[in-house]
Amino acid sequence: MELTWHGHSTWHVTVGDTDLLIDPFFDNPKTSLSADDVDDPDYLLLTHGHADHIGDAGEFDATVVATPEVASFVEDEMGLDEAVGGMGMNLGGTVECGDAYVTMHRADHTNGANTDYEYDLGAPAGFVISDTKPTQASDEESTTFYHAGDTGLMTEMREVIGPYLEPDAAALPIGDHFTMGPWQAAIAVDWLNVDHAFPMHYDTFPPIEQDPQDFAKEVDAAGAGAEVHVLDGDETFEL
Fold it and tell me: Which domain of life is it from (predicted)?
């Protein structure tokens, strides 16, 4: 599994022959790319409807994976295909996306869209992406990546996502103000019991400016066994 961070919450995930792009927003200072520089993925995963997460969604010809409300919104506003199998997915569900299995989990955040129309965009989400179908039986051979979306610290990370979905790596927001800050994100790393942790959703706007090394220090202080990887924009990590 290849993980490429394009700044903010934008990740390109490759599982086998399948490319997934999460929360495309290339108007951020961590990437040197524009949406035009990026090849169309097979699937476009959208955690929620805020503009800094779906801003460039209309630039890609891909199957949308999102809640039904967000899927309908991007179809209406951006002309995209509605979603996997012609309908959105929802919290707790797993869909097969090419060589990947995508499980949607809740995120503690808000949701909405600034348009001339009123949209109920449903619940915000995160995604757990694996190369094997999740089951109750532990699978040490699987490779699994958790993109937490915009979220605060929540006990589901400790009670459900960590022990049952078993991510090997997690990308967590550390910007504070709108999401978790470094110390709460570090607790999430400990609860998730991941081997690798990546900070995201920071330094894009003044309210979320952070030193990612503070996150690394907090992970150590939490007693988590994870290795923190502070990626440069457009850098790839092989999981």
Answer: Archaea
